[in-house]
From TrEMBL:
It comes from Cephalopterus ornatus. It comes from the Eukaryota. Transmembrane segments: none annotated. This is TTC5 protein. Residues 1-61 form the Tetratricopeptide repeat protein 5 OB fold domain. The gene is Ttc5.
Length: 74
């Protein structure tokens, strides 16, 4: 689950409710093999319902700022 906090996740057997999912079909070819699967995307892990409850705020990964300046001198 993208953007999930490091200490949160779902387990095999959990009931998972996915409101307003965006379903996309992925099809990729690599070295003569075709890989085809569905992907389900939601806006945030906090929008899920796991075993009848919303996840706690800690389920969302903290923001991380990454900067780069390719023109900066070494």
């Amino acid at each position: 689950i993208y953007n999930a906090g490091p200490d949160w996740g779902v387990h095999v057997g959990d009931a998972l409710g996915v409101p307003d999912p965006l379903v996309t079909h992925h099809q990729h070819q690599h070295q003569g093999q075709t890989f085809s699967f569905l992907g389900i995307r939601v806006s945030s892990p906090l929008s899920l319902v796991v075993n009848g409850r919303r996840p706690p705020g800690s389920a969302l990964a903290p923001p991380c700022l990454a900067l780069s300046n390719p023109r900066a001198p070494p």
